[in-house]
Specification:
Shape: globular
Largest sheet: 8 strands, mixed
Order of helices and strands: EEEEEEHEHEHEHHE
Number of helices: 5
Number of domains: 1
Number of strands: 10
Distance between the termini: 47 Å
Radius of gyration: 17 Å
Structural class: alpha/beta
Length: 220
Amino acid sequence: MVYFDVVEKKGNRDVAFVYLLKSTKDKDVLIECVESLDPPFPPSEKWVITLSSQKGCPAGCVFCDASYYFKGNLSKEELFEQLNLILENHKNDEYPKSKKIKLHLARMGEPSFNDNVLAFLSEVGKNFQEINFIPSIATIAPRGREDWFYKLKEIKDNFFSQGRFQLQFSLNTTDENEREKIMPVKKWSFSDISKFGDFWLKENDRLITLNFALGKKAVF
């Protein structure tokens, strides 16, 4: 089954291509996925694939252009269709043989709201061992999704150890009150994130990244 039609592909081969996809089964559902390079690194050294995890996003973060609608989670199959679309475009070149392929769940959606992301990453770990994927999760750390993060750690330890997984927390400010304004969902405190970071990290793991969306009115 085909889940998406490619509406548009825009960009530059030397930097990035953005794919706009329209669902074949859900009316008015559009998502994005992206492939990009990290200049000055050539494709043989680093390649980045960024996928959507949801149809829009329910979090409502004020700085995000994916927060204006939400129509559910993407299935495991819909996640793989995004990945396979990009891989298929490079089946005859060097990109899939890159030393570092960052598989980034950070486009539309909050990945921890979607249990299918865990199934997707487990299957990637089992069935794509010939490709050096380094999964990366960008999250605002929603409260109530603790079990999801514990399961994510199991996947990381089982399939992507030795620095082959990157966890990113989108803090966006160092002020707790401002954080409530710009990310209006229940979420872990800075202390909660710190404690989980201690639990998450094992020897030789990639360090946790803290993300900030910069703007003229940002508070730090």
